[in-house]
C-alpha cells in the first residue's frame, strides 16, 4: 500500500515494540505504565496533525498537541482524565525511567522503516546524518544496548551509501 | 478516507476502548493484562487475513490464525513467546474475567462504527438483526451495564429503520 503509517497504526506498532524490547531497558521500568503512556502519547495528533519527529518538536506544534490532548481528555471522567494527562506530561518531559524508555522506543520503528526503506522519509525531508544521529541518540537514554546495535547499523548504512552520504 | 480500518488501527482503537471503559467490567479485572491481550489478539490476521467477526469464527479461519500466531511468536525469546501464546489462548477461550472483558470490548468499536454508519458492513455482508443481537450479547458477559446501553441503542436503530429492518 503506497501510503505512510498513520498515528493509530503507529501507536499499536510502538506498543508492540516496547513490549518486545522491555528486557533491554537501562533502568527498572513498569512496562504496563509504558504501554499506557505509548497508547496515548500521540493522541494530540488527532487535532494537531502528524509530522515527522525531526520537525515536530517545535514550540508551536507541541502547544497545538497539548491543546488537543486537553480537549480530548476533558471528555473523560475526572480521575481518568487526570491520570492520562499526567502520563502524557510524564512522557513529554522524559525524566522518569518509564518515560525515558518510552521515548527511546518511540524512535525505533520510524528509524527501522528508514533503514530498511533506503531512508525514504529522511530523503524526502532532507534530514542530515548529523540530525539523524543526534535525535536518535535518545534511544541510548532508555536502552544503551539497543542504541549500540542501531547506531552501528546506521553508521554501516551511511558507510555503504545505502543512505545517501550527501544527505 | 474511503477504506476500512485495518488490524493495527483496530488494535489501538480496541485497547483505548478497554482502557476507557474498564470501570464497567462485571468482574474484577487486571486492565494491564487485558491491554496486553488486546494488543496481540489479532496478530494471527497478519497471516490469516482480516474478516468481519460474523464470518471469522469458523474452524478453518481460527486454525489459520492459530498457525500464524505460532509462526510469529516463535520468533520471540522463549519466555515471551510462551507468555504471549498463553494470553492469546486465554482470550480465545474467553473463560477468565480478563478474557471475558476483553472479548466484550472487542465487539464494541465495530458495533459503534455500524450504529453510526447506517449498518454499512452489516448490510454489505447481509447480517441479520438476530445475528447482530446474538453475537454482541457477549458484551454482557464482560459488562452488563455496557450491553444494556448498547442493546437499547441497537433496538432503537432497528425500530427507527436506521438499520434496514429487512436485514
UniProtKB/TrEMBL annotation, chains A, B:
Domain of life the protein comes from: Bacteria
Gene3D superfamilies for the chain: Hypothetical protein af1432
InterPro entries assigned to the protein according to its UniProt record, in alphabetical order: HD_domain (IPR006674), YfbR/HDDC2 (IPR039356)
GO terms of molecular function: 5'-deoxynucleotidase activity; metal ion binding
Keyword terms of this UniProt record: Hydrolase, Metal-binding
Keyword Hydrolase: yes
UniProt source species: Marinomonas spartinae
Residue ranges of every copy of the HD domain listed in the record: 3-144
SUPFAM superfamilies registered for this protein in UniProt: HD-domain/PDEase-like
Protein name: HD domain-containing protein
Source lineage: Bacteria, Pseudomonadati, Pseudomonadota, Gammaproteobacteria, Oceanospirillales
Gene Ontology cellular component terms for the protein in this record: cytoplasm
Amino acid at each position: 500500500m503506497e501510503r505512510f503509517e498513520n498515528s493509530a497504526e503507529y501507536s499499536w506498532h510502538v506498543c508492540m515494540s516496547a513490549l518486545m524490547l522491555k528486557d533491554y531497558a537501562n533502568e527498572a521500568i513498569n512496562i504496563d505504565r509504558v504501554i499506557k503512556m505509548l497508547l496515548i502519547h500521540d493522541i494530540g495528533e488527532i487535532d494537531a496533525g502528524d509530522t515527522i519527529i525531526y520537525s515536530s518538536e517545535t514550540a508551536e506544534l507541541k502547544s497545538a498537541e497539548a491543546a488537543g490532548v486537553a480537549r480530548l481528555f476533558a471528555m473523560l471522567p475526572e480521575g481518568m482524565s487526570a491520570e492520562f494527562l499526567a502520563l502524557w506530561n510524564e512522557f513529554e518531559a522524559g525524566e522518569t525511567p518509564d518515560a525515558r524508555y518510552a521515548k527511546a522506543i518511540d524512535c525505533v520503528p520510524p528509524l527501522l522503516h528508514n533503514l530498511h526503506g533506503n531512508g525514504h522519509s529522511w530523503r524526502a525531508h532532507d534530514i542530515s546524518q548529523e540530525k539523524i544521529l543526534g535525535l536518535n541518540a535518545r534511544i541510548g537514554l532508555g536502552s544503551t544496548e539497543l542504541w549500540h546495535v542501531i547506531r552501528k547499523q546506521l553508521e554501516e548504512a551511511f558507510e555503504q551509501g545505502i543512505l545517501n552520504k550527501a544527505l
